[in-house]
C-alpha cells in the first residue's frame, strides 16, 4: 500500500503548515503529523509577537518580509485581523546599560526613552529600577491560532492533505523516492522529504540515515496572573529587560503574561513547566514592576528549537538527495512564517528565491550545509530548475 506524492512534509506546526500551503499551489503535498491535532507543541504554546529587533540577521530579514502578509493576508485566509498593535519596551537596570546600547546600535526603529518616559507608559515601573530604556513602537500582537489555521485551510484548499496520528516509522530513500512507513502496511513515497519536525528534527534525520545538524530544544516557561486594575493597562507595551531575563505583557485585557525567558536544554518531549521557573519569572517581574501576585491562573511550557548558530536552517541537505531542512525556528517561527514559507517553497520548487520580494540573499544565510563544512556535492534533487 504505497501512495506517491510530490512532497512529504513531516510536521504540521506553523513551519510545516505554511511551507506546505505554499508548495501545494504547484505540487501534490501531504503533511504528516504525529499528534492528534496540528501544532500541539511549540506552535500551540506560543505567545507570539512580531518584533523586528529580535533574533539574528536572517530572522530579522524574514520578519520584515513577513509583515505585509500578516497585516494583509489573502482574502478568506482568516475571519478577522491577524495582528494588533503592541509596542515593545526594553528597560535596563543597573549593569545592563551596555546591553541596551548594543541593542540600540544594531537594531532598527528603536527609540531611546528616559526612565521617566518609560514610567509614563508603565506607571507601575519602580522608580529605582530602570537606568535606561528604549521602545519599538510598531510591534504587533499575533493571533497564532488564526495564522496557523489559515495556512492549514489554504493547504487543503490547494489540494494538500494533512494526516494526523501519522507517526513516521522507517524512513528510507529507494529508487529516487523517500519512503515513509506509517505502519499497518501503509507507505508514503515522494522525491522530496521536508523535515519540519521541530524539536524532533534531528531524530527524523537520523531515522532517515541523514546526518543531524545539532538542533537544540530549549524549554521556555510562561504563566498568567492578574494584571493591575489601572486604566489603560490593556494597551501597555510588552516589557522586558535588556538582558532578556524576563518579560511580561497584557493578556486578555485584565491578565498579565509573565515569563522568565528561560532557555533550559531539553530532550524532545511534551514540555511541562517547572515551579521554580514560574516563581523565577514572577520574582524578576516584581523586582521591576509594583504588581502583586496572589495566584497563578495558568502555567505552561514549550520547546523552542535552535540550530547551533541560532539562525534558521532552510535548504537542502548537504549530502542526502531530496532531503530538505525547515528547522531551527527557535522563538521566531510565527513572525517569520510567511516569508520562511515562501523561501522554502522557492527552493523546493527549484526557483531562485533572490527574485522573491524581501528574500534576496537570505537562502545563503539559512543554508544547512554550513553545519557540515567538510561536506560537498550538495544535491537538491527533486524538482530542479527545469521545473
State the major sheet.
9 strands, mixed
CATH architecture of the largest domain: 3-Layer(bba) Sandwich
In the CATH hierarchy, the third-tier topology of the largest domain is known as FAD/NAD(P)-binding domain
Mean pLDDT: 93
| Extended strand count | 22
Oligomeric state of the chains present here: single chain
What keywords describe this structure?
22 strands, D-Amino Acid Oxidase, Chain A, domain 2, alpha/beta, 387 residues, 2 domains, 9-stranded mixed sheet, FAD/NAD(P)-binding domain, disordered C terminus
Describe, in plain words, how this protein is organized in 3D.
Helices cover about 25% and strands about 25% of the residues. The chain is α/β, with parallel strands linked by helices. The chain has two domains: about 1-50 and about 145-215 and about 310-370, FAD/NAD(P)-binding domain; about 90-135 and about 215-305, 2-Layer Sandwich (D-Amino Acid Oxidase, Chain A, domain 2). Strands 6, 7, 8, 15, 16, 17, 18, 19 and 20 form a nine-stranded mixed β-sheet that branches. It has a six-stranded mixed β-sheet with strand order 10-3-2-14-22-21, with helices on both faces. The protein has a four-stranded mixed β-sheet with strand order 1-13-12-11, with no helix packed on it.
Précis, in short:
By secondary structure, the chain is an alpha/beta fold.
Blueprint (SSEs and pairs):
Layout (H helix, E strand, L loop, with lengths): L1 E3 L2 E4 L3 H10 L5 E4 L16 E2 L6 H15 L11 E3 L2 E5 L4 H10 L3 E4 L1 H7 L10 E5 L3 E3 L1 H14 L3 E3 L7 E4 L2 E7 L2 E5 L1 E4 L5 H7 L8 E11 L11 E4 L5 E5 L3 E5 L4 E2 L9 H14 L9 E9 L6 E4 L6 E5 L5 H16 L13 H5 L21
Parallel strand pairs: 1-13, 2-3, 2-14, 3-10, 6-16, 14-22
Antiparallel strand pairs: 4-9, 5-9, 6-8, 7-8, 11-12, 12-13, 15-18, 15-19, 15-20, 16-17, 17-18, 21-22
Amino acid at each position: 500500500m504505497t501512495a506517491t506524492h510530490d512532497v512529504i512534509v513531516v510536521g504540521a506546526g506553523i513551519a510545516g503548515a505554511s511551507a506546505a500551503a505554499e508548495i501545494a499551489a504547484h505540487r501534490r503535498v501531504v503533511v504528516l503529523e504525529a499528534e492528534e491535532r496540528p501544532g500541539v507543541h511549540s506552535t500551540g504554546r506560543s505567545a507570539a509577537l512580531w518584533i523586528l529587533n529580535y533574533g539574528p540577521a536572517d530572522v530579522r530579514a524574514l520578519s520584515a518580509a513577513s509583515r505585509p502578509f500578516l497585516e494583509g493576508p489573502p482574502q478568506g485566509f482568516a475571519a478577522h485581523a491577524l495582528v494588533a498593535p503592541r509596542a515593545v519596551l526594553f528597560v535596563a537596570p543597573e549593569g545592563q546599560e551596555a546591553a541596551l546600547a548594543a541593542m540600540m546600535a544594531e537594531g532598527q526603529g528603536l527609540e531611546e526613552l528616559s526612565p521617566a518616559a518609560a514610567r509614563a507608559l508603565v506607571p507601575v515601573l519602580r522608580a529605582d529600577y530602570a537606568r535606561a530604556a528604549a521602545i519599538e513602537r510598531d510591534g504587533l500582537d499575533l493571533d497564532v491560532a488564526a495564522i496557523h489555521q489559515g495556512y492549514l485551510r489554504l493547504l487543503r484548499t490547494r489540494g494538500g492533505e494533512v494526516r494526523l496520528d501519522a507517526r513516521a516509522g522507517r524512513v528510507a530513500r529507494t529508487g529516487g523516492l523517500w519512503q515513509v512507513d506509517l505502519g499497518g502496511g501503509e507507505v508514503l513515497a515522494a522525491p522530496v522529504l521536508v523535515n519540519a519536525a521541530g524539536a524532533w528534527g534531528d531524530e527524523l534525520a537520523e531515522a532517515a540515515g541523514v546526518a543531524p545538524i545539532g538542533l537544540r530544544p530549549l524549554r521556555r516557561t510562561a504563566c498568567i496572573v492578574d494584571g493591575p486594575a489601572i486604566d489603560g493597562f490593556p494597551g501597555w507595551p510588552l516589557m522586558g529587560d535588556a538582558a532578556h531575563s524576563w518579560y511580561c505583557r497584557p493578556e486578555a485585557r485584565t491578565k498579565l503574561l509573565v515569563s522568565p525567558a528561560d532557555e533550559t536544554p531539553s530532550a524532545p518531549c511534551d514540555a511541562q513547566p517547572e515551579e521554580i521557573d514560574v516563581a523565577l519569572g514572577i520574582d524578576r517581574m516584581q523586582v521591576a514592576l509594583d504588581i502583586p501576585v496572589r495566584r497563578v491562573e495558568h502555567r505552561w511550557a514549550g520547546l523552542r528549537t535552535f540550530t547551533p548558530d541560532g539562525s534558521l536552517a532552510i535548504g537542502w541537505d548537504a549530502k542526502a538527495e531530496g532531503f530538505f531542512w525547515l528547522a531551527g525556528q527557535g522563538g521566531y517561527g510565527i513572525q517569520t512564517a510567511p516569508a520562511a514559507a515562501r523561501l522554502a517553497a522557492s527552493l523546493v520548487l527549484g526557483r531562485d528565491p533572490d527574485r522573491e520580494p524581501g528574500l534576496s540573499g537570505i537562502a545563503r544565510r539559512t543554508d544547512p550545509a554550513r553545519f557540515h563544512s567538510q561536506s560537498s556535492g550538495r544535491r537538491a534533487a527533486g524538482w530542479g530548475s527545469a521545473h
